[in-house]
Amino acid sequence: MSFSVTAPSTRQKWIAGILVIGYALITLLPLIWIVATGFKSSPDAIAYPPKIVFDPTVEGYVNLFTTQTRLIDGNAEAVEDLPWYEKLVRERGNTIVGPSRFSERFFNSVIIGFGSTFFAIVLGTAAAYAFSRFKVPLKDDLLFFILSTRMMPPIAVAIPIFLMFRNLGLNDTHAGMILLYTAVNLSLSVWLINGFIDEIPIEYEEAALIDGYTRFQAFYKVVLPQAATGIASTAIFCLIFAWNEYAFAVLLTSGTAQTAPPFIPTIIGVGGQDWPAVAAGATLFLLPVMVFTILLRKHLLRGITFGAVRK
Amino acid sequence: MSDPSENRAGAISPKPSTSRFRGISDRALAWTFVAPTIVILLAINIFPLIWTIYLSFTNYRVNRPNRDVDFIGLRNYERILSDSDIWITMQATAHFLIWTIVLQVLIGFTLAYLINKKFKGNDLWTTIIVLPMMLSPAVVGNFWTFLYQPQIGLFNYVVGFLTGADPSSFSMIGEVALAPWAIVIVDTWMWTPFVMLICLAGLRSIPDSIYEAAECDRASKWRQFWTITIPMVLPFLMLAVLFRGIENFKMFDLVVQLTGGGPGSTTELTSINLKREAFEKWRTGYASAYAIILFVTVFGLASIYVKALNKVKER
Description:
heterodimer; A: mainly alpha; 14 helices; 2 strands; B: mainly alpha
């Protein structure tokens, strides 16, 4: 066992550990509360004092996926033949009249998220490779221009985009939102992938060129496989951005192409905001991002600082 | 930087090849690769920007397409800069910016410092702390209104439990005195991990040998902290502050969902105010001038950011 003057003592480690874990638990509390509220019944969700122990129910999830109305004539049909979710709704004196819009909105988020990520990555990788390996005139200015597009407040950009999309018939369409998010994500993908490609030694390509590969072949047979991990994590960052984006979505979409973030806060049950249903929607919406965050943890810092800090 | 090697590669590469891309020179390939990105950014960012500049000199209103559009010079700008409501908005934004940055830097640095003590399982807990940062601000902000409910809200209950106050006696988002703090608290909860991660990278970049040398010189731990740790982490901390500054200057989604700018206009940050002018009052020309003023401000911040970024990279 080696002795080091700079290593923290065991006691220091204990104190640090307890403080950090304490903070982590407090910070986790709102997230736990979202998940828990999704499984509460409406009376349990708004009980005082807040209920920590409760009978779990999937009522919130049923409310999330269905539209309901008050049941007027209760015993019109035999209750035993009804599916389980209808029985659950009947207990509250309601009946299901159809599916809600949640699954549509969720699916819109998936299409627009993956669509814009695909284009941002394909175009961004090409541009990043060119910036990294070729002499592009005004390279630094172009890179700064690309980054600066990300600095603009979305609401300020939204005014002309709104007018432009209206003239082109792109308002409230999937194509319009994919185009817009591609443009916003391009700055991130160019900057991050540029950094990843810079780290690949140029000698590999030179060797390939000597072997008779063309530039293009060297690009997709040598550089791409080397940069694959970096490109994949960049893709997840783009996906998370498009998934979470709210300002453009709320201004430019209202129906057909509306994504989940503007929709979830508008979930209203029979009589007031239905918190278990909102929490259920939030849980389904946030969970994929939490999983991705855990997968990304090694590249997290690099992604959120546009490659400025590399661990 | 890589010019010599590139020329070398270029001189060697014209070898017989089976590719259909054989005829394409490096230069042409470079432009084919860069052009689509530039074209999209020109179409979605620069063209709209130019249009906004044009609109900012007019009295155009989207909801009255048949009215004549008059060119009114700088009058929109004059009106904005002399409007006292704008300054109220700016004050709300300044309060939000200053307090979120102060709290996030203090808590974020402390957490990073503690995590850097490398206790068992610190990686796992770091990942858990980071979670809120990656989530949708709109969805999370909306749920926080539930936590902030008087009586039934978890936040009010916990505060009541700790201080003995009645949980139904205060409303974080309904009271003029509390609402500005309600948004500061949620933003701090979400974004402290960001500052923490950057500080952690800074702390980990300090080589042990510097501390060992200081030990040999019998410098106290306190002195080591102020003369080694702080100066070495400072560039990273500055970067974090600039990032948070720019992001929170643009803040929209979280606060719109939390307070909607209310009560009254106590939490009406610039983006929310701009949205109201542009998409509720439909004063397009006026809002365009407003947007240009914000552009200029953010661009000022952005150029400072790039300078700071280069400084950090030089180290």
